[in-house]
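Our preliminary data section would be incomplete without showing what the modeling component actually yields. Below, a chain of 202 amino acids is followed by its predicted structure, encoded as tokens that our downstream tools consume directly.
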Amino acid sequence: IYLLQMGPKWRRHPDQRPTDIARAALEVAAERGVLGTRVADIALRAGVTVGTIYRYFPDKDAVLDAALALAVPPAPRQPLGDRPGSVIPALSEALRRWGGFFDGAGARAVRVTLSEPRRAAANASGPVASALSELAELVREGVARGELRRDLDPQAVARALVGALALGTATSDAVDHALLEVVAALATRGLRPDAVTWKTAP
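Predicted structure:
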């Protein structure tokens, strides 16, 4: 009966087992949170014994560290260059790249990290922080070039954009592409210097 309840059997070389175990851990921890995840749960999802997990990892924290490492952030953006009007397209492209990160493993990793305050604090320089830094710097460049509004704090803009992307994956492993389109549209239109704001609207 136990064997019938276990996850899929290994179909890969044993060298692939650590990655497969980490993938199973990421799925379970995203569903149950760090504190609600046991090594036995991970073993059941992965289709291996608890002893097999301890053959590759010393403890649950090590498994979860490997699980979070599966969420690889996108490559850094390219410099803007001197071409006028390049900030808005770059901002749209950045949102799409980070939207891709919040699809699948990235979404699970964010939920796992936020489920445990200690791990969230330790991950202060992780992918979410990288997204915030990239978008805030892009907005600063846009303001300096006169291509984006000057009345908005770049860091606040970045938090709003990343927060919207992350919220879209709060209950799903896949990013809502309709939401991504909305976020990109609001950002690229609402941040223009001539955008109508609640202060200027009739």
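The mean pLDDT is 83. Residues 127-145 form the longest helix (19 residues). Preliminary results of this kind motivate Aim 1 of the renewal.
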